[in-house]
């Protein structure tokens, strides 16, 4: 089945450590996105990538970094500079082209930093 | 968008009734709108979308209405079922960026 895989589902880290969240898709989508979701709130855009080897900052990019070396993969690193890293992180992808197309989401990684 | 905060607006409906979930979007330049359903601990799931050149679109048991004059989007669910209980988000898209409202919790009473 085609889809988006985020791993691990739960992640625990100590404050001051960097941590990398994995996102892989086999939908052959060009564009990939990272969102952050806090309790009772909507999704906020961290980074997005329209094509391999290119990515843009979203609205809350500070303290995060990404890479897009392969079409299928868009890992997100939460650095120690991120002041409030505990959150639910969602990766999404979509096909690009002339027509609009929706985001397809993975099932998220819940990161807890203590 | 919808009000932001820790307490989601909640809509409680009786099983079998119709549900209407509303959303106010903010960007007049948005040209594409989507409704998502999110169950606890999972990622959002696509329900239905609509382009800005349309004002209504129907799917299976769901209808989306778009009023660009007042920047309002609604999702109608017919014959609501217990499995419809979830948080529903609207999203607006412009230039490949998607922005989400804070969500409405739908509680279906058996």
Structural notes for this entry:
The complex is a heterodimer of chains A (114) and B (110). In chain A, 0% of the residues lie in helices and 49% in strands. Chain A is mostly beta strands. In chain A, the strands form two sheets. In chain A, strands 2, 4, 5, 6, 9, 10 and 11 form a seven-stranded mixed β-sheet that branches. Chain A is globular. In chain A, 37% of the residues are buried. With 110 residues, chain B is mainly β. Chain B has no helices and ten strands. Chain B has strands spanning 10-14, 19-24, 32-38, 45-51, 56-58, 62-67, 72-77, 86-94, 97-100, 104-109. The model of chain B is unreliable at 1-5 (pLDDT under 50). The A-B interface holds A 4, 6, 31, 33, 35, 39-45, 48, 50, 58, 90, 92, 96, 100, 102-108, 110 and B 1-2, 4-8, 31-32, 34, 36, 41-46, 49, 51, 89, 91, 93, 96-103.
Summarize the helices and strands and which ones pair or pack:
The complex is a heterodimer of chains A (114) and B (110).
Chain A: E1 4-7, E2 10-13, E3 19-25, E4 31-37, E5 43-51, E6 54-57, E7 64-66, E8 76-78, E9 87-94, E10 104-105, E11 109-113
Parallel strand pairs in A: 2-11
Antiparallel strand pairs in A: 1-3, 3-8, 4-5, 4-9, 5-6, 7-8, 9-10, 9-11
Chain B: E1 10-14, E2 19-24, E3 32-38, E4 45-51, E5 56-58, E6 62-67, E7 72-77, E8 86-94, E9 97-100, E10 104-109
Parallel strand pairs in B: 1-10
Antiparallel strand pairs in B: 2-7, 3-4, 3-8, 5-6, 6-7, 8-9, 8-10
